[in-house]
Amino acid sequence: MMKSNQKVLFVSAEVAPFAAAGGLGQVSYFLPRALQKIGVEVSIFMPKYGIMDEKKFHIEPYIQNIRIPTGGDQSPRELICNIKVRWGNIKEPTVYFLENMEYFEQRANVYGYNDDHIRFALLSRGALEFVKTGKIRPTILHCNDWHTGYCINYFHTLYQKLPEFKGISSVFTIHNLRSQGIFDFRFATPTDFDDGKSSVAPFFSMALKKQNPMKRGILHADLVNTVSEIYAQEMMTAEYGEGLQELIKEVRVKVFGVLNGLDYVDFDPSEDHVIKKKYSWKMMKNRTENKADLQKKFNLTEDPSVPIISYVGRLSDQKGLDLIKAVIANLLSEYTLQFIILGTGDQKYREYFSKLEKEFPRRVGAHLMHNVVLPRNIFAGSDLLVLPSRFEPAGIVVIEAMRYGTVPVVRKTGGLADIVTDFNPEEGVGNGFSFVHFHELSFYGAIVRALQVYRNKKTWNTLVTKVMKENFSWDHAALEYVSLYERAVEFRKDRQSLIQSEIRQALQL
Q: Which terminus has fewer CB within 10 Å in the chain: N or C?
């Protein structure tokens, strides 16, 4: 085990298993654990949502009546909160919860309220007020996505000169650049434009909603990173930059990419009690039983020779569901295959795939609702996983599927481009199939290439074994983050030296 001098306070709007609405919650669980594993001292700070079971998670009171300034003269000038805690150990980070009845306890969901900007400004400033108590002494303030962009902004403008914050550097991780707040900044009028340099508006000011916390996090953080190296480059283009590409190019010296990882202990087909039959790349014959079980679960014809194509994830345009919709009926008509889809999302896709299931009985299976268990069954029994995304910052679902021996067919973008390299049967290199242009013919061609390889069982089994032996563990990602933390400290020193130099020059004039 390495030993890092850094002490990290990891701030996130969601953290599994306490409250997780998406990929951010999973990363906020696995990354701190992986950092703790290699000797980094990590604490997590998140809201105490009403849906949490305090007895189940051993959450207990810690600090009562902590006063969070709202930033204005308008009443109330402070919001009274509590801090609760679930103590960690050598493997699990300690988790601190910000408790507030109105903004967290009485809400049924993590997101989706018209005052989310107030809720997460409260979380952000609450984290800093917690540090101010002196109960915790981090050296790295690690904030995640727009919800905590306020925290970065507050830290660098209101708190950094306080003695409790001496020696703290900031890291801001972008998990999805498209989500920048509850205001659509792409269509902001000139009067609504936020340059990111003004003070954060008071909680109850209408101006707060129109300030861009994502932009402010990028602008003020000592170091910015995103969840794959390719996406870090793509964010500087008009196609993927979501209106912030010029800012990101301006600060590119402090922008990095680290690919999200997978917990290979938690995701392990040789130890998984959810699937029908445990297996590994050394015991591939056992995987056949999982395929039969999957076909049975989705009422498909039980035939081990028929390839199963699957999709697991959100039903949205971003994930390329329109491409799947454009090609899947033709594929089912032209080839002997089966298709399984699991996910929730846009009604137009729910209706289409429900209809498709009826049109192709025993060949199409659709589970169009949330389920935390079925993905592993699908990964353990499918042959191909498709993810033709318009953009994809990380693509963790592909790594999960590969761990269980499902071969990916993806668009070459973002994290997917970092994960998947095209398989070359002659040379035996590559771990999947990809295409470049976001077009149905390009996607169709990639699937056909995969089906051609599938027909050669010896080559296919070699590919599946290769896929299962890939290592995208959080252990590697954690080491990359330690390196980022060290860089953030250096960038912080450089910034302070530059400020001091400018002050001296101004005094000499």
A: C
Taking 90 as the threshold, does the pLDDT of residue 506 lie above it? no
Q: Which two tokens stand for residue 248?
A: 């990101």
Q: Which residues contact 134 (CB under 8 A, 6 or more apart)?
A: 164
Alpha helices in 84-135 (DSSP H): 116-132
For each of the domains in the chain, give its residue range(s) and CATH number, in order of start: 7-261 (3.40.50.2000), 284-468 (3.40.50.2000)
Torsion sign (Cα): 177, 179, 184, 189 = negative
Q: Which residue in 31, 135, 39, 26 sits closest to 87, CA to CA?
A: 135
Radius of gyration of the chain (CA): 24
CA–CA gap between residue 372 and residue 240 (Å, rounded): 30
> What torsion, rounded to 10 degrees, do the Cα atoms 90, 96, 97, 98 define?
-170
pLDDT digits (tens, 9 = 90+) for 71-96: 988 778 999 999 999 999 988 999 99
Q: For 242-249, what is the mean pLDDT?
A: 95
Exposure string for 270-283, b = 16+ CB within 10 A, e = fewer: eebeebbbbbbbee
Which letter does DSSP use for residue 344 in this model? -
- Count of beta carbons in the 10 Å neighbourhood of residue 20: 18
Secondary structure of residue 321 in the 3-state scheme:
helix
Residues 409, 449: Cα–Cα separation, whole Å:
10
Q: Name the 3-class secondary structure at 164.
A: helix
What share of the chain has pLDDT > 70, as a percent? 97
Q: How far is it, in rounded angstroms, from Cα 165 to Cα 334?
A: 64
Q: Residue 490, CB half-sphere, CA atoms under 13 Å: how many? A: 8
